[in-house]
Design goal:
15% strand; single chain; alpha/beta; elongated
Length: 122
């Protein structure tokens, strides 16, 4: 990308990287690191035409939660806290990736997009 002087890097973090989470301190810290990494790398490479952005998904209805040790009813409770009252889907994340990878995002760099049904509303 640096040699071509163009490219798009899209990182994936999490909403808990912004606001933290109960019983997820290590995960939250790691995702906060991805957010800071995105901003720092964006500053380092934008002059070379490489764009770096990040997507912070909200609570997702994926195997990640189903295969973890989340308590019974966790997903139902969590979704009730989301303004849209639904879980974020892989398609929601994919749509954001497509946008950030496209020329339509030519003035966006170093940003974190919350794709979370309105949970963060930053």
């Amino acid at each position: 990308m640096l040699e071509r002087k163009s490219g798009k890097i899209i990182n994936i973090s999490s909403g808990v990287g912004v606001f933290g989470g109960v019983n997820s301190s290590i995960y939250s810290a790691a995702k906060a690191g991805v957010i800071a990494f995105t901003k720092s790398l964006a500053k380092e490479v934008i002059a070379s035409g490489v764009y770096v952005n990040n997507i912070a998904p909200g609570i997702g209805d994926t195997n990640f939660h189903r295969s973890s040790n989340m308590p019974e009813g966790f997903m139902e409770f969590a979704v009730r806290t989301v303004p849209l009252r639904r879980a974020t889907t892989p398609q929601d994340i994919g749509n954001a990736v497509v946008f950030l990878a496209s020329d339509a995002s030519s003035d966006i760099v170093g940003q974190t997009f919350s794709v979370d049904g309105g949970t963060l509303m930053l």
